[in-house]
Amino acid sequence: MKNGFFKTSLFYLVFIIFLTACSKNKEEPSSVVKINDFVGQWKGLFPYNGNNDPSTAELRASLATYAENSILTGFMKTPDGILIIDNKVFLDGVYTFSIRNNSFDNPDCQSWDVTGSANLYNEFYMGVNFGGIFCGVHPKDITGTMTKELSIPDTTVLLTMAAAGRKMIYSVTDSEGISFDQSTEFQKDLANGVWRILTTKTKGQQSPKEVSYQFITPVEWGQLPDNDSTPSHQQTNYRIDAKTGTKYITVTATDSIIVTVVSFDEIVTVPAGTFKCIKLARENKPIAPGGSEAFSKIWINNNTGIIKSLKYKGDSLVKTTLLKEKNF
């Protein structure tokens, strides 16, 4: 009898401890939130037009990590288009971000200071608030919640070619049939995952080196002015939210540059291998003395970078650039 009573009591004691633990876990979810918990597709209804406007709009966010899961980035689809999200800091489970001005050439958008934060209530439910001055004259304060979408696949592929120490060697042939090598190296992480890419061209030992810069973020590939080190007022060449026919227009002091997305599924074979590429068409038009007129076809791969380019003046091919080798 005593053994039976002891066993029964012990059973109920263990059972009560188990229920208490389950109840506690249910009422007090773990407060440890990792940066990977934010990764995925999210959607929500927000008072997108500001506090004085009761209307709401659906916003969708796509978030992903890179740089060994230390940086979170992505974009938000809004009624006005795509907002590119840049990681600022991830601290104590809260993701603080900035929203990059995507209209550098619009005079109304030169004053731009939009920031926000996101926190997880659980793995499927996220609170988001962001606001500031949009395009100089549109202050907004947007607060709401988003739920994770499990059934909608992410068809967007981030630009993942940027990594420390990556180097590509290209074989370049000019209009005179002279070939030389050109190197491209991921040189420096400037800030918030913006990688500066140093391109060096050397035609011979007696020729001076030509140096230019490009930049890569997880969502955008572009070009910096020579000897610049910050991605301000850059030329945009490609962004992940692009569709066939998307155009990027940059006006410099001497040129008008138009880059058009032609195709997303070009198969290109070069000495370094065979790659699936995005094809771009770039047109330079002079608008002032010193400007140049040219047309280029460019093929890029999201995981590697530029694979091939052909440059024309009129109907004549004046430069061919092919990826020769890479160290990754």
Write a structural description.
With 328 residues, the protein is mostly beta strands. The chain has two domains: 114 residues, Lipocalin (Beta Barrel), CATH 2.40.128; 160 residues, YmcC-like fold. The protein contains one helix and 20 strands. The protein has a twelve-stranded antiparallel beta sheet with strand order 14-13-12-11-10-9-20-19-18-17-16-15, with no helix packed on it. Strands 1-2-3-4-5-6-7-8 form an eight-stranded antiparallel β-barrel. The longest helix is centred in the first third of the chain and has 26 residues. About 6% of the residues have low confidence.
CATH topology of the largest domain: YmcC-like fold
Strand content: over 45%
Distance between the termini: 73 Å
Order of helices and strands: HEEEEEEEEEEEEEEEEEEEE
Strand order, sheet with most strands = 14-13-12-11-10-9-20-19-18-17-16-15
The CATH C-level name of the largest domain is: Mainly Beta
Class of secondary structure makeup: mainly beta
Radius of gyration: 26 Å
